[in-house]
Amino acid sequence: MAKPTLEDMDVASTVLVETGPPGIRATTGSAEAPLAFYWAIVRRYAARIATFVLFVTVIVTLVSLSLPKQYAATAILRIDPASDRTVGEQNNSNSSFSMNTLDLMTTEASLVTSPAVVQQTIDKLHLDRNPEFAPKGAVPGVPLTQSGANEVLVRVAKAISVDQPLNSYLLSVSFRSHDPQLSAQVANDLLRSLIQHDYETRTTALNESSESMQAQLIDLRAKMEQAQQALVQYESSKDVLSPDSSTNIMQSRLSQVNQDLGQAQTQRITLEAEYEIVKSGDVDALIASDRGQSLQPLYQRLQLDRFKLAQMAQMYGPNYPVYRQQESLVSNDETVLREEEKHTAGQVASEYNAALAKEKLLTGALGVQKQSMDAFNLKAIRYYALKASSDAYSKLYYQLQQSVQDASVAASLHSESLRLVNAAQPVTKAVYPRPLLAAALSFIFALCLGVGCAIVWGILDRSLSTPEQVEQLFNLAVLTALPQVSGREVRLLVPMGYGPKLLDAAAGGVAPADEYESSPFREAVLGLHSAIKLMQDRDLQVIAVTSSVPAEGKTTLSANLAAAFSGLGGPTLLIDTDMRKPGVHRQFQLQNRRGLSSLLRGQCMLEQVLNQAPGVPNLTIMTAGSMPTSPAQLLQLGLGDLLEQLRLRFDHIIIDCPPALGFADALAPANLANGCILVVHADQTERQTVAAALRQLRSARTEMLGIVLNNVSQKRGAYYSYYSHYYSYHHTAEGNDPEAGELDE
Q1: What share of the chain is helix, strand, coil (3-state, %, to 5)?
Q2: Are residues 404 and 449 in the same domain?
């Protein structure tokens, strides 16, 4: 085996290597505990949980049986929101506000427990005199005070329950009482009181409304008469008897004047165009117009005569008599044409002036007609306003008068929407208390509370108690669990076949022969020895035993385990490497002046530190020796070579290592061993401490064999509880056989 250097061991002692089973990493990290861990906590406190659940269930059941019985009778009320509230009352379904069905059902359900309804039932059935609802200290025959009456009201209201079945217009009203007959009477009377209260409140409201409307009716009548008088006076003073017909006549006149004005304007525009042609003197334009139709024959004759005159001038000359005659004819034609043209121009001018004058007259008439129409419209507007006011007051008056009559009729009629459809009947089966339900609920509640408290208590308890808990948290096998025993019961095992003597580590010396007997502690150590021997796939010649912190029992286990191995007949060596606080020499009552530290420092030879264990054949002891300056460095530098020599001389080597936490002394022996056992003190060592020790050992690449749980209480270990009874029976009742119950090796 290569000798590790000091630098390598220092690095191994400071760097945490996350190797090994995943259970260790999960426990040392932030992962949650497995479900089996909580189940183990529940099993640990199962007896206490069962006792608590049984106690709570029995108490609750007894209390429920001792309570006075209560009976509930139920009456059913039907609500019909589609019908009129009262006969003769107008249906207001088209009003701006209409209560929906859900609101109506909720309102009626609230009214059942209202003080007005409940107080009617109290007064009718004299519930204030009933001992069940009467206040404490009430004297029969003496009227209750206000506070006493309120107390009765509250008690009765608490006994009422209202339920609305789904998809229905029904209300189920139940009442609880110690008397079945009284519960039925109260339930029925509550609904009757509700119906009566509905009738009374509506009647009162309608009467008050009718009185108010009567006062308004008188005032409205005076206003209506005043409006009508104002309308009549206006009609007579302004002569507005029939505004609609007068308006129609005036509108017809205005339309006719407007139409005549349009025609006059059209005629004037036509004549104005002809007049402009005449004024211009353009005969051709005048002849071409409609007005020049009479000039066309004269103009054509003039043109023909001129053409003939021109021909004669060419043929005869101007001195010829025929020419002069023709020339005289042309002159005559021209004179006639000019006269006719003047006559036409004068006629056009006259007609144009007449049309212009007509247009002016029609324009003035239209303006006058419009003014008359506007004045009449103003009168009509005032008339219509007075008439609308009169009509409005008349309509309001007659409507209010009808409402007063309807309210008077409705006030005398009962409601149709509330009906008692199923009267309550006395029930002989009590609804409260219910012992079976109370027992079941208390059982479930107590069970949940007990399990919850147990889990919380188990989580707050950071120590390790049972092998199952250790295996679930760290995913490491628990090789054995040493029972909780007194100091005198912890003795070194004497191998079978070597005599009936063993060394008492607590009292010192050799125990008597009759004390050589089996015990739970002995059986646990032998079980650990067997577990190690069955690991045939490993070479476990060198086994290291350590713990997280001091005082966990590692030295006692190392001594007993070495004694068990020596019983096979092979030479076994027990080495104490805990130089800071050695304990092996006390187990065997040996001197500790020379030991491992002296050998590693070269102060003595190997044979000088090997001591034969008293009373245990084949077992050699190497004590720790005096404490050196640096135990960790001494073990790191020399223990490896020493173990190579010792492997050749001994079949088994058990190393009692220092605690894993606090110092680095345990890393070198644990690393050099073929396997390491971690001893954990039950109910004392915390989980975080064990997890830190495992990380420290794995940082040194230690091969972990498992965990030994020491000082396990027999109350938490079913095996040891059974073995304790077995041991007491066989070694008390059969005390004649000192060999009884002892295992053969």
Answers
A1: 60, 10, 30
A2: no
Which pair of structure tokens corresponds to residue 739? 């060999």
- The pTM for the full model equals 0.48
- The DSSP code for 619 is E
Instruction: Give the side-chain half-sphere CA count within 13 A for 18.
Output: 7
- Indicate if 396 and 441 belong to the same structural domain: no
DSSP string covering 480-545: EEEE---GGG-BPPPPTTS-S--BBTTT-SBPPGGG----HHHHHHHHHHHHHHT-TTS--SEEEE
Higher-scoring residue by pLDDT: 278, 245: 278
Separation of alpha carbons 562 and 620, rounded Å: 9
User: Phi/psi class of residue 697: alpha, beta or left (left: φ > 0; alpha: ψ in -120 to 50)?
Assistant: alpha
Q: pLDDT by residue (tens digit) across 140-187?
A: 767 888 888 888 889 899 999 999 888 888 889 999 998 999 999 999
Q: Are 411 and 207 in contact (CB under 8 A)?
A: yes
Paired strand residues for 171: 77
The position carrying tokens 């006058």 is 368
Secondary structure (H, E, C), 380-413: HHHHHHHHHHHHHHHHHHHHHHHHHHHHHHHCCC
Beta bridge partners of 545: 656, 677
Tell me the pairing of strands 704-712 and 478-483. Answer: parallel
Structural domain boundaries, residue 251: 243-410
User: Nearest Cα to 663, choosing from 2, 216, 200, 9?
Assistant: 9
How far is Cα 36 from Cα 41, in angstroms, rounded to an integer? 9
3 state SS of 78: strand
Rounded Cα distance between 515 and 581, Å, is 30
Cis peptide before 433 (omega within 30 of 0): yes
Q: Is residue 126 part of a domain?
A: no
In the block, which residue shows the tokens 């091969």? Answer: 703
- The answer for 551, left when phi > 0, alpha when psi is -120 to 50, beta otherwise, is left
- Is residue 488 predicted with pLDDT exceeding 60? no
Report the range of poorest mean pLDDT among 419-423, 453-457, 501-505, 681-685.
Answer: 501-505
Residue 577's closest CA among 646, 509, 528? 646
Is the domain of 567 the same as that of 665?
A: yes
Cα 596–598–600 angle (5° rounding)?
A: 70
Question: In the numeric block, which tokens belong to residue 101?
Answer: 């069905």
Same domain, 556 and 623: yes
Tokens representing 78 are 């039907």
